[in-house]
Protein 1
Amino acid sequence: MTFVKCILPLLAATASVAVAAPAAAQMNHSNMPGMTMPMPAKKAPAKKPAAKKTIAKKPIAKKPAAKKAGPKKPVAQKGATKPADPHAGHDMSSMPGMQTPAASAPPQTTCLPEHAAMGHCTLPTTQPAPPPEPTCMPEHAAMGHCTPATTNTAEGTSFPAGNAPRPPVPTDHAGDAVYGTPAMEMGRHHLKEFHGDQKFFQALLNVFEAQLRNGRDGYEWDGEAWYGGDINRLWLKSEGEAAFGRPVEKAEVQALYSRAIGPYFNVQGGVRYDFKPNPSRVYATVGFEGLAPSFFDVEGALFLSNKGELMARLEGYYDQRITQRLILQPRAELNFAAQSSREIGVGKGLSDAELGLRLRYDIRREFAPYIGVQYRRAFGDTRQFLRAEGEDAAGWSVVSGIRMWF
Amino acid sequence: MIDNVALERRAFLRAAALTGAGFGVAGAMPAWAQPVSGGLVRPLPTVSGNDIALTIGKVAVRVDGKVSRAVGINGTVPGPLVRLKEGQKVRLRVQSTLDEESSIHWHGLLVPFAMDGVPGISFPGIMPRSTFDYEFEVNQSGTYWYHSHSAYQEEDGVYGPIVIDPAGPDPVAFDREHVLVLSDHSPMAGATIYKKLKQMGGGYFNMQRLTLSGQLAGRDLPASERREWAKMRMDPADIADVTGSTYNFTVNGFGPFDNWTGLFRPGERVRLRIINAAAQSNFNVRIPDLPMTVVQADGQNVRPVTVDELQIGVAETYDVVVTPGDRAYSFVSESIDRSGLGRATLAPREGMSAPVPPLRPRPVLTMKDMGMDMSGMNHGGMAGMAGMDMPNAPNPAAVRGVDPSAEQNASRNLWKLTGWKEPTDHGTIKSAAVAASAAMAGMDHAAMGHGTAAATPAPTGSMAGMDHSAMTQGAAGSGSMAGMDHSAMTGAAPTGGTAAAPMGHGASGGSMSHSMRDFSNAPQVDKNPGVQTISPNPVDRTGEPGAGLEGLDHRVLTYRDLVSLNRNPDVRAPTRSLDIHLTGNMERYMWSFDGVKMSEPAEPIPFRLNERVRVTLINDTMMPHPIHLHGHFFELVTGHGAYGPRKHTVNVAPGGKVSFDVTADAQGDWAFHCHNLYHMTAGMMRVVTVRPDQGGNQ
């Protein structure tokens, strides 16, 4: 409070002395919402339209000397003369269950901060104020419907805003007149480049693992990489598998153009090339990729081969955080085909399904070793094709690998 | 004239470079920010005068004993204190030794636009290995700061404080002052941090997310609410994009273990000039056992208001006056996500320290942060619902406790190391074990000025005790809702009724999800993948304490507590109003105004010279955004008439809105942006043009 002493003389020098000084004097008791000191007793708020009128006159009198007085004037008057009337229905007292501040609070604290915020009453923080205008919410005031009564004087920020038109958008750049257009163009290039136009890159190996299964231990990968901006990106995807000591059984690469079509989803189109199994195939592909509600990562694609085979794939996974770093990832992949093709070993309908459950530990977000299990099963003709080659059509594996990205 | 101190330091650095790297690092701190150790007690040396030289260059810094690369000014991070006098003319010769473009922006200083230092808007930028002279008159006083406006250099260390002494007597009386520059220091380069955010969104740095173990332990949110948030693809634990998992929160360039110390004589009035120069971190600032009287905000004097804690948004400044006794005090700047804290000591003698409070539980977002609040909803009878809002209800995470696997940075251990004994301080949230009802009752309503126990579900008190965030909690919610008179809602307008219905059932995401991206609520927003959500019912939250400061048993500053000391220079009514939506997509890490990134390119926001405009910032995202307008001060519309607090930066709460009146009296082109560095670099920025009226309308 020594502080106040120092401040007072200065306040005295300001134009607002008369009103400001008393307020400052009491401020340290009352300006703080958390203060336990008793607040100065105040009269319970009461409606007093007269005060409101005084407030309202000011905008007209002090109207800025702008040229656009035309549109402004009516607005000021509107805000001034009919603060309450379009919102008669707002009267708090008419709301069942609603307590007026005066009724619900002890006598010495008639004004709750929330109510003050709504313009129901005046916190003693501000200067002695005209009686509050309970029907005027700040939101309404901001819209020019009424004049809030929370303030000491109806000036400045307590005025409603007019509806003057927006000025035209200039086509020139102010800096050009000072530094010349060529130099400023360089600066504008920097400005654009570093404020939303950056390009990024990410490569993610979601599955990169050894698989232990009955007699046929092998390995598998499934990853993706992208480069680009926020909306347009180039994607590469690859997945494949092999048994240890044997040639790669399956290997494919996709090159896709990806475009963001919503907050969470991208559409993707491009080509897929299968190196294995022989004979290799080229597919035209179109699909989607994104984040479904409940944070499921999903993707799906249609593939049309150069031999006319039509296939589809659905993939999804979910990261269940057990702790901040221990994450359980259930994962599923379903492959479908519109026809059976012995050549590529794919049967009509649901050709195969893969279900995995991997538990990883994020040593860093970019580097997470994991263990897990995977079940795979072929269906229909695919099953027959596999058996004909002496391979298992279904089976479990225990997997261990590293999820990583950079 | 080049300041002698700077010259001395340079000579010192040269000597240090010869004697060894470690010593050189120790030298890479400005003398005014040296910790009190080894008898190093001296008054603040400053860089001042009419001719000041600043050199931007690469440095090594040591924070809490760890050395990392940074970019500093005159060899230090933060850069030297630039001390000016109101009325003087100054020439600041800024030399860059970098191989990339650079710049210095004088944050909060009213300078001609061509001297404002934003590449591509006010000037071309400082080219690699070249010099640029800034010249302007100093026509103001107060606490400000300066920083690079190029690339990610602000994160890398290119920032420093400015203090301008008033030409006349200072209305603030004080015997001594300390400048406290708060920041977030990472061993990662800013460019890398931004890349990680682009690659993985907010999940990369957040090590305090919701987990299954937390759910099983009954922490944070109950399962039903977790599901509702997940359905909306929203993370209620996403409080900060970049956290203590990479940041060490610094004061004057020193980490919490370094313990920078400012001296005082007991009984002195000590003015602390607190500057949030962080790239991405908002802080909760407090000095346990020492109330702070706020006397200035953003360099502009305000009527003194005494608080125990304040939240300082990125790029804001607060001057507070404290009157410490004959003991040491801990100055604590806790990141709002409570992933770490900065710490300094105020002490009468060197070598002293005080207990440091523990990190409090990381808050979770509530429906209000989604702009789902009822109070601002419509013009019908529902408007009265605002009266039911109790902004001071404790956060669910404060009641239920935070995730057991949540990780914070090393500063989490300081309380043990410094011998903190509970309960010696207010402002410490009750532990998770406290039942919801107890927590509610534990709130000091009298201290909050309520004078009534609002949580009591008696018929009369029920409305006051009603809170939307409380409704989202299990126990606490049902308790206070019991007293809620649902018939009060019967008069609601249709939209109100729709939103109100699910609220009555506690968790409500299912029906909310439909309205979380309704562009009819914001027709001006461009409909594109960069806009994840539109707040259905944004409300003015300037009367609320920041996230996680609800329900504390001590005084917390809100924007509404700020009242300008002097009458505002322009008290005309605004001739028009302008809404600007703050938009983003956390998953893609895209940020924009009205859905349009700076780089699109976005159209400038035009102002007529000297027109007065009411600007309303509407936050459609779940993060706070400290919005900064260059070249102007604006007056917050917080119910203080001609005494609206004048600011250069205002932090808009999630799901909230803030209005300010601004007089566009500075002709030229100006930057207008979110001061979270990575939001700005993602595109949350515009050019504001101020031109004489051409007579044309649009």
Note: The first helix of chain B runs from residue 4 to 19.
Protein 2
Amino acid sequence: MLRMRTPIRLIVASFVVFGLVATACSDESDTTPATGSAIAGAVVVFAASSLTEAFTEMADAFAADHPDVNLTFNFAGSGDLFTQISEGAPADVFVSADAANMTRLTDAALNAGAPVTIARNTFEIIVEPGNPQAITGLTDLVDPNLIVVLCADTVPCGKGAQQVLANAGITLTPKSLEDKVKGVVTKVTAGEADAGIVFVTDVNAAGNTAEGVQIPAAVNVISEYPAVITKDAPNPAAAQAFVEFVAGPAGQAILTTYGFLAP
Amino acid sequence: MLALAALAILFFALPLVGLLWRAPWSNAWGYLTDDNALTALRLSLICSLWATALSVLFGVPLAWVLARVSFPGRGAVRALCTLSMVLPPVVGGLALFFALGRRGLVGQWLYRWFDLQLPFTTAGVVVAQTFVAMPFLVITVEAALRQLDGRAEDASRTLGASRWYTFRRVTLPAIRPALAAGAVLAWARALGEFGATITFAGNFPGTTQTMPLAVYLARETNPEQAIVLALLLIAISFGVLVSLRDRWFGRGAAGRHSVLA
């Protein structure tokens, strides 16, 4: 109970402040257009690195709706972002690539309000263009002559890949456990590894330097991307606007083009 | 002056104090003797010593050529051979991919003829560490060679000694302190190497996961262990650098007094 009290109080406080600011703004700025006038200033979004491409595009669309908001991103691994926020980094919004790191944040009572799932992602086998090893599915990966690279289980893609392999009842020995999903992508696109297991969106982002082999839905894992406004958000109003934008139709349309699934 | 110097010292000391402050002293021994940590430490020591040996084997002749042989484009060659000191290590790792990887410029032939693939092997770790560490030895030894009075070498040559004999019996003893200092710097750099290793060689316990990689991976699941492992790395490097200062930089009794004073 004690844990819950502070965020709630802060939400209330921030709403009161927001209300005052909004009234003050609308009072003194009768000449400016009324829409969105209360939402302004800098807003900092800490987002999982797998969102880099989609969110960068999102920024332009968001700016069109909210010209007074100055949006900045910090893209890194979800765990790193959690560490930075818990050490006091000034984030307004935290978007994790899995539920686990969001739980760490909420357990530490660093959130204001409940997390909102903004997207989902599934896994694919990433292979070289043209699939030279003719890999058709997970069972092909056990071939000892094949060089398979996975993410370490410290990052969401590693946890997911282990779960996928467990679901399929497959045991394999990877040659490397990469510290981030792009490490797996690089090893495959550089031709050093024959295959890896990564998010569908990472295969898409690799463009024509890689190809994806689908993993059947029966054994695949769905990773959720929860977003939340942080407890100490310097600009909770704009943070709220951004989360709503991403969860709204315009944001969802952009996420879909990058291969994300609707929440 | 003194105030600025004190600030500089503080700047280097504070992060270390921060680590010591956060260190979980009661569990430290358990973290250090953990199987994973010991495996990473053993691999780190083996690889960094190999990298140092290779750096000496190839770096000393390179330093000698840069200091003693005059040829067009020497400045460019020196810059080329020390470039990896300033290159972001991850870029260095990628460059090694393109040169020595399975699809690399040279690596594709190694793979085709000898079935040799450096990435994901301990040898790959040694290559990555040597790539970033050797310049430290080269510039230290080259500087010593340049400061060396060439007349002793000339005398040796005019007395009929071969170039190799002169190098071995005259030049090498004279530059020994610099050689030792350069080797230790290279070793310390190899021991702390992270970016080129994880990019080029990957990360797998027992084959390519060195201490810095273990620290980096542990920082999420087990930050306490990461701090303890980092402190061990720092302790090793610090101890070696301190002994280096006293033994090899102070040349002769007078030199040592001035260092201590």
Note: Residues 1-6, 15-37 of chain A have pLDDT under 50 and may be disordered.
Protein 3
Amino acid sequence: MEKAQVSKNETKPLKNYVDINPQKKVATRAAFGKALVSVGENNQNIVVLDADLSVSTKSSLFAEKFPDRFFEMGIAESNMIGTAAGLALSGKIPYLCSFGCFVAGRFETIRISIAYNQVNCRIIGTHAGIGIGEDGYTQMALEDMALMRSLPGMGVLQPADDIETQRMIEFLSNHHQGPVYVRLTRQALPQLFNQQYVFEYGKGVILEEGKDIALVATGGVVHPAYEAAQKLKEKGYTSSVVNIHTIKPLDETLIQSLAHSHQWMFTIEDHTIMGGLGSAVSEVLAGTQNHAVLSRIGIQDIYGESGTPEALYEKYGLSTAKIVEHILRQLES
Amino acid sequence: MATSLSPELHQKLSETARALRMLSLQMITEAQSGHPGGSLSAADLVTVLFFHYMTHNPHEPHWPERDRFVLSKGHGVPVVYAALAKCGYFPEEELMTLRKINSRLQGHPDHVRLPFMETSSGSLGQGLSIAQGMAMAAKLDQKKYKTYCLLGDGETQEGQIWEAAMSAPKYQLDNLIAILDFNKGQIDGYTEDVMNLSPLKAKWEAFNWEVQEIDGHDLHQIFAALNHAQISRKKPHMIIAHTIKGKGVSFMEDNIDWHGKSPSLKERDQAIEELRRH
């Protein structure tokens, strides 16, 4: 099987755009709304559809600026999906926006109208994970990545901060062919990158390098994973922290290399551990030998509930303290 | 394009419809699976659209100005494949690869394998939304093309159809022409028993569509309805075409058993003979 590509002692310089600042926080849906206006300015083929949630998904910003290219479809997601497919089949690049659970929940329509047609639809699912808080389970996208990942040719993306969202949307608007699903957060996320950030589709981004543990995270829990790595240093363990913005196609080379250069590997996601990032990483490692012990941190095959995002992250194991606890339990077992 | 049906044209199109019916039955028999009932019911509608009414060019299939045809009732695709082959999009011999391994002619339309089909379909209830998107794109690009969408009656039991029924009038898509192949049958029985659709005309009118009701086997009526649908009333158009499932073959007509099974070789020969004589 594939050999380790990064030796244990090798350290690569981090990208110069890693610039973590917990004081500067932006929700990725807000970053998306802003980015959409910017790409809409230069690309006339961009059209946007929403299903009565434009104020929440932030597609309302595009609607105000470009009313002729915005379609309010009402509370009827399946029709929005099909309409977007028809627009894409006619050369447009539609962004169709709703909460992740409502849009991914219309799986069969996405499956045939968008995926099987292989059209340039950008499916935007906001309000990802239990991080949405008080609204409770019915509004939480917890299975969306699992669903979208199962469709051949469907890209599955999840940015982790403001600038990454903006660069991702620029890329998807001007340089990408084929359907994608983009998962965004309701809650504000700390800055991870500065303006030099370059989005590379299908590539993981290393935020920090260490020797013992690999922390592989996506979306809203990347920063808690980074914080967990700092806490683990106090216990004598150093960690590599990796942001996976492209869950499909996954950066398999990086995953293999991390798994062969660290003793332990943890995936961290605000999504069910079945079918999301944890599963994707497991699938890469299945059939390979001598890799890190892998443990998946995420929603453990249960429904979410109402509460503050902080209380939910604490209860369901996604706060920094709970991530550290999970890791130490695993390391010391 | 408003147009009239001369006796010569009527004769020519009748012959074409007969040929499409024969080819559909030959393809389905060759595949030993498929949906004869809904291909035969739609044959006259498909003939008028592909061989006279729609503007399209087999030598330039992606011509941006072409009229769009969305087959929402994807199981009725044999008659559309037959029409595409007869128009010259691909050789007629290829028709006999229907449903066979490595064929572009999938059991239900596959837009990626066969781009002449404007969209993949077959999961019912999705085509009207897709056609709506194409009609919206025409408006955005100020193009004159029309989008025709052929619906099955059974599939209008899907909720998504009524979502599109609501949204197309909102966007005043007078360039969207839906045609409902009202053959009264679906897999589990007659539509009126399985899940009654009536009153269909009143439903679509209530959703603010410009609705016409015609005999879907009468070429004069099909012509008149399509002519009427070229005139803008700031509304999308719905043509409810009363048809007979299995039309043209005595033992298939109005017989639900022929929704989705292949004729035997003997039945095929009998059917072809009937079509020839008729």
Note: The beta strands of chain B are 68-71, 147-152, 176-182, 185-186, 189-190, 210-215, 237-242.
